[in-house]
């Protein structure tokens, strides 16, 4: 495939915001927006893979989201059920793997089992990884890492902290995209985002299509990353 964009990021992470507002504009329940968001996410993963990106992390459920009304959470759990029984098979067939970051023990037991199987059944030789952040919060992740370090009883270096995070096998994100108009990270990958480029757009996530994704990558591609150097 012809590739016009030079300098493709290795790891892109996305805060998929705006599903609720997208549904509200259509006088539909929030779950309708999450459904459309899942379709947008699947299309985005395909696009990312075709562009040569290796890791795509998506914020599918924050720890804070767990306090949403029961019907909305149940709608999201149903989407996870569908994704991990049906959609992951397409992912595997395309040579891609699924990974999860976050504390899934707070999710319904059957969802946990599906997630564990989804990760376990992923192809071993995958060249592309979809990483779902589920009941993920960066402060909780860091607190967990600090406690693990304390229990070892040794001083830690920066690399030791990285190796105690959920993302230990995943490179830091080169680019973090947030849709839906808010200009913040909302407890997402705070340690890993130290040198990430940020891209914000007002586009609501269900409308964040392949063209929009390409635009974000083109913006990244034109930037000069100095990592604190000159
Ligand atoms: C934020 O929009 C989005 C979420 C809380 C959920 C994101 C989930 C998906 C896109 C479905 C993913 C499915 C799988 C299987 C990973 P919001 O509800 O906060 O929107 P709002 O800001 O407009 O209210």
Q: What can you see in these coordinates?
A:
With 230 residues, this protein is α/β, with parallel strands linked by helices. The protein has a single domain (11-220), classed as Decaprenyl diphosphate synthase-like (Undecaprenyl pyrophosphate synthetase), CATH 3.40.1180. It has seven helices and six strands. It has helices at 19-25, 30-51, 70-93, 109-120, 138-152, 158-163, 210-221; strands at 11-15, 55-62, 96-101, 128-136, 175-178, 197-200. It has a six-stranded parallel sheet, sandwiched between helices. Helix 1 crosses helix 2 and helix 2 (30-51) packs parallel to helix 3 (70-93). The longest helix is centred in the middle third of the chain and has 24 residues, at 70-93. It is globular. The relative contact order is 0.20. Bound molecules: farnesyl diphosphate (FPP). Farnesyl diphosphate is lined by residues 16-21, 30, 34, 37-38, 41, 60, 65, 79-80, 83, 132, 180, 205.
Bound heterogens, unique: farnesyl diphosphate
Number of helices: 7
Number of strands: 6
Rg, rounded, reads 17 Å
Instruction: Name the strands of the widest sheet in spatial order.
Output: 3-4-2-1-5-6
Order of helices and strands: EHHEHEHEHHEEH
Structural class: alpha/beta
The percent range for strand residues is 15-25%
Number of domains: 1
Task: Give a nutshell description of this structure.
This protein is α/β, with parallel strands linked by helices and 230 residues long.
Question: Which key terms come to mind for this protein?
Answer:
Undecaprenyl pyrophosphate synthetase, globular, binds farnesyl diphosphate
């Amino acid at each position: 495939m012809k590739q016009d964009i030079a300098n493709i990021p290795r790891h892109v992470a996305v805060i998929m915001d705006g599903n609720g507002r997208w549904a509200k504009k259509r006088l539909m329940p929030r779950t309708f927006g999450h459904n459309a968001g899942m379709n947008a996410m699947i299309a985005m993963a395909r696009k990312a893979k075709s562009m040569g990106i290796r890791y795509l992390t998506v914020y599918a459920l924050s720890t804070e989201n767990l306090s949403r009304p029961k019907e909305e959470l149940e709608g999201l759990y149903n989407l996870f059920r569908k994704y991990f029984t049906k959609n992951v098979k397409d992912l595997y067939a395309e040579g891609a793997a699924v990974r999860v970051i976050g504390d899934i023990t707070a999710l319904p037991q059957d969802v946990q089992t599906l997630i564990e199987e989804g990760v376990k059944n992923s192809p071993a030789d995958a060249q592309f990884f979809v990483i779902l952040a589920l009941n993920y919060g960066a402060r909780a992740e860091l607190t967990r890492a600090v406690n693990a370090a304390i229990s070892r009883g040794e001083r830690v270096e920066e690399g030791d902290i990285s190796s105690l995070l959920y993302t230990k096998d995943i490179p830091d994100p080169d680019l973090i995209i947030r849709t839906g108009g808010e200009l913040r990270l909302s407890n997402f990958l705070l340690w890993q985002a130290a040198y990430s480029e940020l891209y914000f757009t007002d586009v609501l996530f269900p409308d964040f299509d392949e063209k929009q994704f390409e635009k974000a990558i083109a913006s990244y591609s034109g930037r000069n990353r100095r990592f604190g150097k000159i």
